[in-house]
Design a protein that fits this description.
This is Arabinofuranan 3-O-arabinosyltransferase. This protein has 395 residues and is mostly helical. The protein is built from 18 helices and no strands.
């Protein structure tokens, strides 16, 4: 029996039990944070012609932040009572996660019968990002599915279809908006028909039947632009929580944007033609991790959108083949708590900084890997070949 077969035999029962525990036990149990209830209440209000965007944003409770297009898509679940609707949402989220894992391994050339499938599923459901997505019951599982489907269809040149999954996610949450840079750079213009058209069509349908769509623009959008100091792992949010000087926060944000620009340029010039899968998956991770860090809001469970980047470790030339990058992954994806009763201040610092430094270290590791490769390439271009006539004359 091969080693891969043995690993699969070990991981499948463990993974199945973890999936059931995360969904049926932890997911159904829930927690003090409930992302589902505001969505359900908004859907119910939408169906009954009541105002949706009238919340008090001064509280730290979860708020409803989806645009009218997202409200329209979410509204059917309000036909079911809230408890059963939440259970169904959790179940469908698990299906979306399993489908995401399957599409991800297929995109990287693995079969469902290979050891890659249980390994990826095991990793998925051991992370904080997946666990809290199910426990808090939010839309992130479907965003991940939309991301993987978008990347796969874009790489296969199914441009008309590639815009559909990302367009649906953008109609609810704009998390994947930075990824539209990829088809733009690749000149795959048809992708934008679905990516932009679907949110516009759904907004046009939802706007006239919403009770207060203008309040989304007047009240919710300005709130989304604020860097709140709770449940926010972006540089601005983390800095606001710890009282960091604003000038230093701007310097850090600019520095990470500049690092991202270099990484995207190098990946585009060196990998797009030689390994398009590596280019797209790595660039998607750089774009998303940077947006989590430098935007006004970056929540820890957004980290699941980095799964395609992590999967590149199986490809030669991957930027994930070094330990600092995976130390960063530990920071932004670990389900462990660092709160300490004995070392209270130190434990609190670790706990509330782990996601921010995880994203930061991951981006720094990627930047350093690509910078060293660029320096090596420049050194090779500047060094004349030993057997060339010019090298002989210069010698």
């Amino acid at each position: 029996m091969s080693t891969q077969r043995i690993v699969a035999l070990i991981l499948w029962p463990i993974t199945v039990v973890i999936i059931l525990q995360r969904s049926i036990i932890m997911g159904v149990n829930g927690d003090r944070t409930d992302d589902f209830r505001p969505v359900y209440d908004a859907a119910l209000a939408f169906l009954n012609g009541r105002a949706v965007y009238g919340e008090n944003y001064d509280t730290v409770d979860p708020h409803y932040l989806y645009p009218p297009s997202g409200t329209l898509l979410m509204s059917p679940m309000a036909y079911i009572d809230p408890e059963r609707a939440r259970w169904i949402f959790i179940a469908v989220s698990v299906v979306a996660l399993i489908a995401s894992a399957y599409l991800l391994i297929r995109m990287f050339g693995f079969d469902a019968r290979s050891v890659a499938f249980p390994v990826v599923l095991f990793f998925f459901f051991c992370t904080e990002t997946v666990a809290h997505t199910l426990i808090f019951t939010n839309f992130n599982s479907f965003v991940l599915l939309g991301e993987v489907a978008f990347l796969m269809l874009m790489l296969k040149r199914r441009d008309w279809w590639a815009g559909v999954p990302i367009g649906i996610t953008l109609a609810v949450k704009p998390v994947l908006a930075p990824l539209l840079l990829l088809p733009l750079l690749n000149r795959q213009w048809r992708v934008f028909a679905g990516a932009v058209g679907i949110p516009l069509v759904l907004t046009a349908l939802a706007w006239p039947i919403s009770a207060d769509p203008v309040d989304f623009i007047k009240r919710t959008v300005p709130y989304l632009g604020e860097a709140r100091d709770y449940y926010n792992s972006s540089i601005a949010g983390n800095g606001a929580y710890f009282g960091v000087q604003s000038w230093l926060l701007y310097v850090l944000r600019i520095a990470f944007v500049l690092m991202a620009i270099f990484c995207l340029w190098f990946l585009y010039t060196q990998y797009r033609r030689t390994d398009e899968l590596l280019w797209a998956a790595t660039s998607s991770g750089v774009l998303l991790a940077t947006s989590f860090l430098v935007s006004s809001l970056g929540q820890g469970y957004y980290s699941m959108m980095l799964f395609p980047l992590l999967m590149t470790v199986v490809r030669p030339g991957s930027v994930m083949r070094n330990w600092p990058a995976w130390l960063g992954v530990v920071g932004c994806m670990t389900f462990d708590s660092f709160i300490s009763k004995r070392f209270a201040a130190f434990g609190r610092m670790l706990e509330y900084n782990k996601v921010t430094w995880g994203w930061s270290l991951l981006l720094i590791a990627i930047f350093c890997v690509l910078l060293f490769r660029w320096l090596d390439l420049r050194a090779q271009r500047d060094t004349p070949a030993v057997d060339s006539p010019r090298a002989t004359v210069d010698a």
